[in-house]
Amino acid sequence: MRKLSFIVVLLMVAFYSLAQNTRPVTQIIKRVSAEEVRSFIDTTSVPTIVNFWASWCGPCIREIPWFDSLISKKNLPVKLLLVSLDSPFEDPGKLVAFVKKQGYKGEVVFLNDANIHHYLSIIDKKWTGEIPASIFINKSKKYYQLFNQQLPPKRFELELEKLVQ
């Protein structure tokens, strides 16, 4: 009887462990091509910020919370798309865990292209390849601005006002 109880407990622990290691579908970060990012930029109908970042980039990690908090604080109708440039050859689970730990509110996608010359020429020819980089778009205002650098909070607030005015 003890052996049977032990086996039942062991099986319950094993199934519990497996259940804990299974990621819900909502935590999967979509892989996108440079062409899909460009198409999104060209077709978005709401004021939008497309931010290019990586989990290993200190300025990127500092900038995203400013974006999230100011958009939320001012309750603005702005879409924030966070395009990760982490290596497409890395385990996507690492990026999921990183995003979850950071608590990013914007939609996160993963650029599935390691060829910088390819994706720069498609997304924006004026982009130097530095990160963080952000593109602010408001089609109704004919507003399009690329920033090849980190935006400090005050500058971000100014640019955000230009985006939604």
Task: Tell me about this structure.
The protein has helices at residues 2-21, 34-43, 58-73, 92-102, 116-123, 153-164; strands at 30-32, 48-53, 79-84, 107-111, 133-138, 143-147. It contains 6 helices and 6 strands. By secondary structure, the chain is of the alpha/beta class. The protein has one domain (28-164): Glutaredoxin (3-Layer(aba) Sandwich). The chain has a 6-stranded mixed beta sheet with strand order 1-4-3-2-5-6.
Question: What are the SSEs and their pairings?
Answer:
Elements: H1 2-21, E1 30-32, H2 34-43, E2 48-53, H3 58-73, E3 79-84, H4 92-102, E4 107-111, H5 116-123, E5 133-138, E6 143-147, H6 153-164
Parallel strand pairs: 1-4, 2-3, 3-4
Antiparallel strand pairs: 2-5, 5-6
Helix pairs in contact: 2-5, 3-6
Keywords for this structure?
single chain; 165 residues; alpha/beta; Glutaredoxin; six-stranded mixed sheet; 6 helices; 47% helix; 19% strand
What's a concise summary of this model?
Helices cover 47% and strands 19% of the residues. The protein has 165 residues and is an alpha/beta fold.
Please tell me how large the radius of gyration is.
20 Å
Number of strands: 6
Biggest pleated-sheet summary: 6 strands, mixed
CATH topology: Glutaredoxin
What are the secondary-structure elements, in order, as H or E? HEHEHEHEHEEH
The helix content is 40-55%
Number of helices: 6
Specify the overall morphology.
globular
Kindly report the average pLDDT value.
Answer: 85
Query: Which stretches of 5+ consecutive residues score pLDDT under 50?
Result: 4-26
Structural class: alpha/beta
CATH architecture: 3-Layer(aba) Sandwich
Bin the strand percentage.
Answer: 15-25%
The CATH class turns out to be Alpha Beta
| Terminal CA distance | 74 Å
If strands are numbered along the chain, what order do they take across the biggest sheet?
1-4-3-2-5-6
CATH superfamily caption:
Glutaredoxin
Number of domains as seen in the coordinates: 1
